[in-house]
């Protein structure tokens, strides 16, 4: 009896094991359909020879091509970077379900940067030198990118970097799929100045290069373009949890807008203390460039509801691409996952690489670098994007208002794509 | 050849084996990428070597060796960064000719304390002197007041935390949390290509053996015996008329200088320096390397460092999401089962058998961990 029972159980499990990956693949493929239909589809007959598409000894075979995924799966940054890893794996699975790249399935090697910048450099080198990956999807913090940059330049790799960042950088070997600082900040400041009649701004940031550079650009824009005034600019060490003194200053100076780029766990303390101090975000406009749906998960919707965030993507965006993307993501990674701005930008990486490879007709890094400008991805969840000459993306700037349920409600978006300008004149 | 001022016969064989391993076996079997990784691991071996003297012999547990590793590394990195920031290389900046992170932080002229680092001679001197003097100041302040044991360990941790905060906070002068990246040339010689990595590896191994010799000398001199005596019964040494504080300061300074040399090697080999090597966590990791190798054994510490780092790399490559648990388990297992580390295993299980084999032919006992000087049993 008992052996019979276990036999039944086993066969049941085995059949589940057989069906579910297949079903998942099908669903993934279906989710990617809106994207695929817009792409020129290479017919199966013309899979080009490996010797033609790979002249530099990359890990490309007749049936497969290997890319690297390099994020922090452990350490303090894991909480932020996990979304990027998930998005990249989803994109790769969808691309494979749709036939791969130049007839080759994408395989990936995942390495852990462990929230440690030199480890990032070591692993990047390993991926390029040992594994000969055709591209790396990776990095998150500016520090990790700065560590990896010399490595990808020296070994001539291709890095797809997802995070919005401070700009002041441009490399043949990097495609920046997030926004640089001016793309993220200027339109948002314009909007809030017009909408709220804001004249005075209070800047608060974490103390490292991204907030400092962003605030420098913000200050120049407020002073020179909006003819307003910055009434305070304060920085807190990464991980800081004591914001009472700055909150008192806010109460004294009564700025029209609080502009923040506080990152990571500090956000939780900052918004809770703001609320405890009686600052009601429904009445006191606050514009943040560092809080996505991921952060709200930790902050709690009730502590931040009413704040404005300036991003290029919100999970709640209402367009056909996003309507396919969000369920596909949740299908793969669980119903409870949220999708923030960077996660979406990470999703763009493998797709842009695939499109560029197909445009160049080659996996060679030099040809991809040269073919990148002008590559457009119509299936992006944020809408249409295009790679600029400077290897950043043309994309829209959007303002959302945080709701109690942790999602953003889209309030404003720029009419046109905003040009990326990593070395902005007049803002340095 | 036997029993001179540096080593006895079995130690000589041990060093010879290590030399063959590092100079012949590894370069012949590993590709340049892996060899460069070994070079990175070996930079921590300098720290572990210092800890053997300071902690193993002197009984002074420092949980802040990252400070000295960092000081040495930053001195070297400052020199390399200045060379990489020529006006030509940095012409897109608002102020060309200064390091890029200064430009981002709106600094328009090279700070005064950066200027001497244009000279390689000054830099080499600074790598030894800056951490040495800093250790001397901490050591004098602590040991003269008879602060020791746990309190000293806590204070070294505090120093590590303070220095990290200082480096991260003063990002305009130090590169902040990003550290100093993109180091390129040493006196015009490109340190990035493969052949340079090989040269740097052999240079580093050479420096390591110089440090091993110094450590061996300290150990066999009267100094080493006093350190051990001090560890076992500090008051007796004091009542015998020795200045315990001075010996402790010396051991601490020598460990600091070794760590600093390691840091400088790190900057050269990896082309990178960041505050992530200065703080509390890396400092404790460095103690773990020593503990795994055996804190009483000079060579054990080096093997321990190589083993732990090798495990770190291979575990993280194989299990990117779980590797930290595996590594943690390894540490706990080693410390629980083998309190004297690899050297303890060797001394307890392997060496006696070799001795038996040898003594069956010759009647001359010898031991790798040389119990005449550093008895295997810790005092605590």
UniProtKB/TrEMBL annotation, chain B:
Report the main location listed first in the record: membrane
Q: Please give the InterPro entries that the UniProt record associates with this protein.
A: ABC_transp_permease, ABC_transptr_urea_perm_UrtC, LivM-like
Question: Which Gene Ontology terms cover its molecular function?
Answer: branched-chain amino acid transmembrane transporter activity
Keyword DNA-binding listed: no
The places in or outside the cell where this protein is found are: Cell membrane
Q: How does it sit in the membrane?
A: Multi-pass membrane protein
Write down any Gene Ontology CC term.
plasma membrane
Recorded protein name is Urea ABC transporter permease subunit UrtC
> Lineage, please?
Bacteria, Pseudomonadati, Pseudomonadota, Alphaproteobacteria, Hyphomicrobiales
């Amino acid at each position: 009896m008992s052996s019979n029972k276990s036999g039944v159980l086993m066969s049941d499990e085995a059949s589940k094991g057989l069906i579910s990956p297949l079903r998942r693949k099908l669903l993934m493929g279906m989710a990617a359909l809106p994207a695929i239909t817009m792409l020129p589809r290479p017919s199966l007959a013309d899979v080009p020879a490996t010797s033609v598409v790979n002249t530099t000894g990359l890990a490309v075979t007749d049936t497969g091509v290997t890319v690297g995924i390099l994020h922090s799966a452990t350490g303090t940054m894991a909480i932020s970077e996990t979304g990027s890893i998930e998005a990249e794996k989803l994109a790769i699975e969808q691309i494979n379900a749709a036939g791969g790249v130049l007839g080759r399935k994408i395989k990936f090697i995942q390495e852990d940067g462990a929230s440690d910048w030199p480890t990032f450099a070591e692993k990047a080198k390993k991926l390029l030198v040992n594994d000969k990956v055709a591209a790396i999807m990776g990095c998150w913090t500016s520090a990790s990118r700065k560590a990896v940059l010399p490595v990808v330049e020296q070994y001539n790799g291709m890095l797809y970097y997802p995070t919005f960042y401070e700009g002041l950088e441009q490399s043949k070997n990097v495609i920046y799929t997030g926004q640089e600082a001016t793309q993220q900040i200027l339109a948002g400041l314009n909007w809030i100045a017009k909408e709220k009649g804001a004249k005075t701004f209070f800047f608060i940031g974490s103390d490292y290069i991204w907030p400092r550079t962003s605030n420098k650009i913000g200050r120049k824009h407020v002073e020179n373009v909006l003819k307003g005034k910055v009434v305070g600019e304060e920085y807190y060490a990464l991980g800081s949890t004591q914001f009472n003194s700055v909150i008192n200053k806010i109460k004294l100076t009564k700025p029209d807008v609080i502009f923040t780029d506080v990152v990571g766990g500090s956000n939780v303390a900052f918004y809770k203390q703001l609320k405890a101090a009686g600052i009601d975000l429904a009445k006191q406009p606050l514009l943040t460039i560092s809080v996505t749906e991921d952060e709200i998960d930790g902050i709690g919707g009730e502590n931040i509801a009413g704040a404005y965030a300036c991003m290029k993507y919100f999970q709640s965006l209402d367009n056909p691409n996003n309507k396919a993307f969000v369920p596909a993501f949740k299908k793969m990674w669980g119903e409870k996952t949220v999708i923030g701005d960077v996660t979406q930008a990470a999703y763009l990486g493998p797709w842009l690489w695939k499109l560029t490879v197909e445009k160049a007709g080659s996996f060679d890094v030099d040809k991809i670098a040269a073919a990148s400008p002008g590559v457009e991805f119509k299936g992006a969840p944020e809408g249409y994007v295009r790679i600029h000459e400077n290897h950043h993306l043309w994309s829209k700037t959007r303002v959302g208002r945080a709701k109690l349920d942790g999602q953003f409600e889209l309030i404003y978006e720029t009419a046109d794509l905003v040009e990326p300008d990593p070395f902005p004149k007049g803002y340095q | 050849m036997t029993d001179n001022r540096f080593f006895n016969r079995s130690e000589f064989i041990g060093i010879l084996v290590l030399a063959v391993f590092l100079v012949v076996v590894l370069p012949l079997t590993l590709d340049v990428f892996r060899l460069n990784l070994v070079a990175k691991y070996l930079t921590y071996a300098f720290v572990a070597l210092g800890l053997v003297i300071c902690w193993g012999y002197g009984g002074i547990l420092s949980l802040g060796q990252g400070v000295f590793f960092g000081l040495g590394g930053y001195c070297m990195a400052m020199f390399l960064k200045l060379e990489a920031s020529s006006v030509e290389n940095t012409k897109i900046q608002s102020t060309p000719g200064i390091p890029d992170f200064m430009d981002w932080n709106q600094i328009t002229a090279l700070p005064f304390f950066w200027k001497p680092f244009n000279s390689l001679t000054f830099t080499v001197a600074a790598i030894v002197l800056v951490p040495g003097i800093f250790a001397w100041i901490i050591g004098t302040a602590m040991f003269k007041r008879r602060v020791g044991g746990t309190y000293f360990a806590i204070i070294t941790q505090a120093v590590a935390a303070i220095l990290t905060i200082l480096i991260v906070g003063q990002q305009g002068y130090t590169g902040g949390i990003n550290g100093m990246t993109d180091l390129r040339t040493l006196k015009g010689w490109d340190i990035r290509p493969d052949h340079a990595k090989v040269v740097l590896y052999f240079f580093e191994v050479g420096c390591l053996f110089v440090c091993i010799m110094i450590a061996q000398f300290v150990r066999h001199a009267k100094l080493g015996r006093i350190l051990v005596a001090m560890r076992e019964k500090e008051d007796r040494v004091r009542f015998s008329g020795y200045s315990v504080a001075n010996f402790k300061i010396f051991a601490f300074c020598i460990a600091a200088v070794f760590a600093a040399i390691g840091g400088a090697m790190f900057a050269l080999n990896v082309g990178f320096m960041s505050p992530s090597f200065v703080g509390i966590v890396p400092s404790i990791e460095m103690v773990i390397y020593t503990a795994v190798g055996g804190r009483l054994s000079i060579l054990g510490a080096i093997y321990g460092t190589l083993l732990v780092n090798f495990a770190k790399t291979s575990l993280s490559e194989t299990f990117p999401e779980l590797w930290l648990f595996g590594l943690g388990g390894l540490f706990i297992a080693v410390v629980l089962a083998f309190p004297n580390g690899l050297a303890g295993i060797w001394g307890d299980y392997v060496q006696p058998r070799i001795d038996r084999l040898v003594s069956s032919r010759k009647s001359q006992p010898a031991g790798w961990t040389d119990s005449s000087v550093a008895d295997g049993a810790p005092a605590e």
